[in-house]
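Regression test case RT-17, inverse folding.

Input:
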């Protein structure tokens, strides 16, 4: 890839390969087909990973319902007319219209980072977990935003069952069988529900572990969970989880988790070897480092046309952007800030299409249009054959909601190839038993070889 700019080639730099980055580049491939063929436009996508993660399927991947490789979409395969650069954007100078990219090749060779000039910037790095200064959280907490974290969590849960099954120490056993999830949004509720469902199935193969021995605890600082599906469905979800012996604690905060002892704001204290943190997200740090206009919440201030407010040649959407919601009713208070689109996949995918069309129109001297989409509702899975949904004003629960959850996300996951494979996996899962194997070595593949090469149990003499 050329690292120099050219007056004859307009370079569009897409920072991020998530929902917005992937779909923007995908639509740009189609809308700028003629320019790409003539070589007058170049689309460069920069992301630390060579794939996009379809996050709504992470809970099912953690529960073993879907293979991890079917939750990710290879960027190079779906973006054949784009240049995909695997690296981390470390700095953006929009005055000079250059971005600094740290790549593995440069790191290995000891070379300087790549300085990449651009003509149009699409800043869509997504979000990262929003952590709080809770004592011990950084040492023992587990996130749930990547496929690596989802599979690592699955292995960890099954490993705790193995630990509990092989000890008679009540303290070790109680800590191993206590699973704490902090955050009552989509990620926390769906991850807990799917993993509890999987663990409940798995313990039938352990002679000395019963389902009632496990303690699953959901901690939420506000007075409700799953606010996206409405108050009624949120209350139903609480009842459903509690009926499964899941301890849902509302208006409760995590105060400490040092030395694997969890302390909550309601005064309770108990040992736990599993603490999953899903209490919100924040914009990627590169957003603040870009020195572009930000809101009070650290997101890029954007116009309805998805331009960064007051900045030419800079665009954004998705989690990193505060895009005005043109379909929201006006605020009663005249001085109150206007509503912005929620940072979710439903808006991100649709914003990406408008963003690509607006960039194309700008390059061709046309008119841009504003993004407007009325939120249609939400669906959430609560484990196998269980779910909640609030779509187009209709409320569903149980099997119908679970079926709608699967059907909707199957229709939204990119590429027909991936859709077919996921559908085939679901059909096979309905015909055969679940797999409950923990592949802990995936997190450290060289551990066994290092042990054999040292003085461990494989040090054989003959």
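Golden output:
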């Amino acid at each position: 890839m050329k690292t120099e700019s050219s007056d004859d080639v307009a370079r569009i730099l897409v920072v991020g390969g998530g929902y917005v980055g992937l779909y923007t580049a995908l639509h740009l491939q189609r809308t700028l087909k003629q320019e790409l063929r003539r070589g007058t436009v170049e689309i460069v996508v920069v992301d630390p990973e060579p794939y996009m993660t379809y996050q709504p399927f992470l809970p099912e991947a953690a529960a073993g319902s879907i293979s991890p490789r079917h939750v990710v979409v290879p960027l190079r395969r779906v973006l054949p007319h784009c240049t995909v650069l695997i690296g981390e954007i470390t700095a953006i100078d929009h005055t000079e219209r250059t971005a600094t990219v740290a790549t593995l090749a440069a790191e290995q060779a000891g070379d300087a980072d790549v300085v990449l000039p651009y003509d149009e910037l699409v800043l869509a790095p997504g979000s990262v977990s929003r952590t709080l200064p809770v004592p011990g959280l950084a040492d023992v907490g587990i996130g749930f935003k990547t496929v690596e974290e989802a599979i690592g969590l699955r292995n960890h849960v099954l490993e705790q069952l193995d630990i509990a099954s092989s000890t008679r120490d009540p303290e070790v056993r109680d800590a191993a069988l206590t699973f704490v999830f902090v955050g009552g949004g989509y990620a926390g509720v769906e991850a807990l529900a799917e993993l509890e469902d999987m663990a409940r199935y798995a313990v039938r193969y352990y002679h000395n572990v019963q389902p009632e021995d496990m303690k699953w605890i959901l901690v939420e600082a506000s007075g409700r969970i799953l606010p996206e599906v409405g108050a009624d469905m949120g209350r139903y979800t609480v009842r459903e989880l509690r009926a499964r012996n899941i301890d849902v604690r509302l208006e409760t905060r995590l105060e400490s988790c040092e030395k694997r002892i969890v302390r909550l704001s309601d005064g309770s204290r108990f040992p736990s070897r599993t603490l999953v943190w899903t209490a919100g997200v924040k914009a990627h740090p590169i957003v603040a480092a870009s020195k572009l206009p930000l809101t009070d919440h650290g997101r890029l201030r954007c116009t309805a046309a998805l331009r960064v407010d007051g900045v030419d040649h800079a665009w954004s959407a998705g989690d990193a952007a505060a895009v005005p919601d043109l379909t929201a009713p006006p605020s009663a208070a005249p001085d109150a800030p206007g509503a912005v689109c929620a940072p979710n996949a439903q808006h991100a995918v649709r914003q990406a299409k408008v963003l690509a069309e607006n960039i194309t129109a700008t390059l061709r001297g046309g008119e841009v249009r504003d993004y407007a989409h009325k939120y249609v509702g939400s669906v959430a899975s609560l484990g196998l054959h269980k779910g909640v949904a609030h779509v187009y004003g209709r409320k569903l629960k149980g099997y119908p909601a679970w079926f709608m959850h699967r059907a909707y996300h199957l229709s939204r996951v990119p590429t027909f190839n991936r859709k077919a494979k996921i559908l085939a996996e679901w059909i096979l899962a309905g015909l055969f038993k679940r797999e409950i194997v923990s592949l802990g070595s995936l997190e450290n593949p060289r551990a066994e070889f290092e042990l054999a090469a040292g003085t461990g149990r494989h040090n054989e003499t003959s």
